[in-house]
Specification:
The chain is mainly α and about 70 residues long. It has a single domain (about 5-69), classed as BFD-like [2Fe-2S]-binding domain (Arc Repressor Mutant, subunit A, Orthogonal Bundle), CATH 1.10.10.1100. About 60% of the residues lie in helices and about 5% in strands. The protein has helices at about 5-10, 20-30, 35-45, 55-69, and strands at about 15, 20. It has a two-stranded antiparallel ribbon. The longest helix is centred in the C-terminal third of the chain and has 16 residues, at about 55-69. It binds FE2/S2 (inorganic) cluster (FES). FE2/S2 (inorganic) cluster binds near residues 18 and 50.
Length: about 70
Amino acid sequence: MTTEEEIITRMKPGCICKGIKLRRIIEAIEDGATSYEEIAKVTGIGGGSCNSKRCRQKIAALLKKSALV
Ligand code: FES
């Protein structure tokens, strides 16, 4: 991913219900979080009106991608 792509990705919404950017979630993974629960604890995501349906899918994809790198 180029730097420009990375910047745009990080600006995208991570948890829409809580208004938390994807950047915060990526940082949590980079800091060692390895599960949705750990990321939720650190970032405050989840528990919104969608019952975590939207952000849980994003997190799963990010964790899978980070495991492959
Ligand atoms: S998008 Fe995260 S709880 Fe709804």
